[in-house]
Specification:
129 residues; 6 helices; membrane; transmembrane; transmembrane helix; YczE/YyaS-like
Amino acid sequence: MLRDCFLPKRLAIYCTGLLILALGTALFPLSRLGSGAIVALPVVLSHFTNLTLGQGSFCLFCLFIFLQILLEKKFRLKTLLQLPFSLVFGALVDFYSLTLGLAAWQPEAWPVRLFLVAAAICATSLGPF
């Protein structure tokens, strides 16, 4: 009963973390200095297909959820609740990449690229925190 009282606060913290993590995911490919573990496969997927980075992230998370369902001893319906949040995460990555103009901006200066990769590392580490 006490845990239910804090649900709006927990949901707000989760959504804020999701926003920060999606920003970090969108910043990694922009720096062109490598990528983090959460971004590596979606970046490769987006380079070899017509998928955007957000769509690639969503496809990869769907694969992870499917594998989680296979590995669980007992199927739980709440496992499928990860799907809408994965969709929102992919949409947020595409929002940051396309709407804010991050996809069109290709910085050449090394200090800018180093700043971007540092910002991406900070965002992907602070998002889940």
